[in-house]
Amino acid sequence: MESQLVPLDVVGVRIELPSKQPVVVLRGAEPGLENLHVAVLVGPAEANAIAMAMEKKVPPRPMTHDLLSEVITRLGSGVRSVEIGMLDASTYRGTIILGNGRSFDARASDAIAVAVRVQCLVTMDRQMLTRVGITPRTAATGQRPISEDEIKEFRRFLDSAEPEDFE
């Protein structure tokens, strides 16, 4: 079956508790997918780079992602989109797709940092989004919050999952 890429919104950077691990939260942007969220674990530097770009803060000197975005733009190609996919059962990968159709493999966090800067489309395969996306339980939906035990159980699953578990 041919893959169908769907748009994602970059919701923001959050800190996962109790580990204090930064995560970038992505959300389906199409009707019917807007309740599906994907949390991508990122490093502190990448989290800061994404958050700064989302807040439209400009550092006194360009950060690495600013430089990369500027170089791509000045070379005339520009960034058409960024695709987020799975590298393995628990690691996301990014692909930066240029205006000329060429693509470059990247860490998901770096690809998202570039996408936020150049304000391009962020996408994921529809089937993958429906497999890995979660629907947060909130008071607004009348459901109870996700417990720490449920989060730990989900992490154990991700740690032991094989690629076939996501097919």
UniProtKB/TrEMBL annotation:
GO molecular function: nuclease activity
PROSITE patterns per the UniProt record, alphabetical: BFN
One Pfam family per UniProt: BFN_dom
BFN domain boundaries: 5-136
Protein name as catalogued: BFN domain-containing protein
